[in-house]
Amino acid sequence: MKEKVLMLASVASMIDQFNIPNIKLLQNMGYEVHVACNFEKGSSCSNERVQTLKKILEELKVKYYQIDFERNILKIINNIKAYKQVKKILLENKYKFLHCHSPIGGVVGRLAGYKTQTKVIYTAHGFHFFKGAPLINWLLYYPIEKYLSKYTDVLITINKEDYKRAKTFHAKKVEYIPGVGIDVEKIRSIKVDKEAKRKELGLTKENIVLLSVGELNKNKNHSIVIKALAKINNPNIYYLICGQGKLKEELIKLAKDLKIEKNVKLLGFRKDVYEIYKISDIFIFPSKREGLSVALMEAICCDLPIICSNIRGNNDLVENGKNGFLVKVIEKNEYIEKIKLSKNLEKSTEKILAKINIQNIEQKMITIYAEFVEKI
């Protein structure tokens, strides 16, 4: 009988976007892999995509469980319920180890792992406390993460700032890998008829196209770009956003109020996002917080000039003034200035692409898993 491993995350999108490769790696290592997350709410994926994810898991012969996680850490009663659900499946399945993701998944998974004596790997996809983070984040998240690190056998960080800080915690081992990686060869092999694709999106070959990819929420900070676009007042510049989320109507209203609604296109969840990268002129990424963004990696792979916020993770990948511009998170005038200067930027180096290539990341994960299991 195969030994079992549980992949745990608070929401389905964390499994879909970041962990299918890890599931396949573990299967190739001979494990039976189970998945537990909230498939019903909180995900940045569409309902259709969640159903597709379930089919992918079924095809991979991965058993999955619904866990009623709440993304809000303050909804304690709800997450106590999630804790009991996770604890129950840990006791039933006697997993070799648990690999948990996301802040809530990390809290619940490590507490349940400690209670059931299950070994735990935790991947922090960007601590909520970081240089420049609000004080409340430090007061709330920092003590929780530091305390729970003592219940962590391996703590994986995905950017240099988090790695340095995690080394001061109590985890038995701290690892650094540069994000979840991207398939560089696959992305670069995709061809697109630029003029036809632009026409499909209501654009012409003469238009200057800015692109952002990410959930429509406060953290992604899309509103700063809309405000900058209104200030530039150039009807030839269009701003595309691929992603869905609760701020959709608010962003539409903002564009209307600033009288640039025709120049802002909210495209929702897209299956053709790589093609959209390749018909764009500038990738603009004003997030307030990131771990190490897949969208930013994809834009780099597509040789787009980058304008992004100068935050942890982003500055691991972008060298200011070379392959991109790093700007202050809420400084609208900096975005305006850098949009005008973006043509002066260089393409990203092969060294950066090699670092974030999925093959490199997978090899690092294989080593982490193998060394960990050897010591159990």
Explain what this protein looks like in three dimensions:
The structure is a single chain. The protein has 376 residues and is α/β, with parallel strands linked by helices. It folds into 2 domains: 4-180 and 357-375, Rossmann fold (3-Layer(aba) Sandwich), CATH 3.40.50.2000; 184-355, Rossmann fold (3-Layer(aba) Sandwich), CATH 3.40.50.2000. The protein has helices spanning 12-18, 20-28, 47-59, 76-93, 103-116, 135-148, 160-166, 184-189, 194-200, 222-232, 248-257, 273-278, 294-301, 314-317, 332-341, 350-356, 358-375, and strands at residues 4-11, 32-38, 63-66, 97-101, 119-124, 154-157, 174-176, 208-213, 237-242, 264-268, 282-285, 306-309, 324-327. The strands form 2 sheets. Strands 3-2-1-4-5-6-7 form a 7-stranded parallel β-sheet, sandwiched between helices. Helix 10 packs across helix 15. The chain starts with a strand and ends with a helix. The model has no long low-confidence stretch (mean pLDDT 94).
Sum this structure up briefly:
The chain is α/β, with parallel strands linked by helices.
Record the SSE blueprint.
Layout: E1 4-11, H1 12-18, H2 20-28, E2 32-38, H3 47-59, E3 63-66, H4 76-93, E4 97-101, H5 103-116, E5 119-124, H6 135-148, E6 154-157, H7 160-166, E7 174-176, H8 184-189, H9 194-200, E8 208-213, H10 222-232, E9 237-242, H11 248-257, E10 264-268, H12 273-278, E11 282-285, H13 294-301, E12 306-309, H14 314-317, E13 324-327, H15 332-341, H16 350-356, H17 358-375
Parallel strand pairs: 1-2, 1-4, 2-3, 4-5, 5-6, 6-7, 8-9, 8-11, 9-10, 11-12, 12-13
Helix pairs in contact: 2-17, 4-5, 10-15
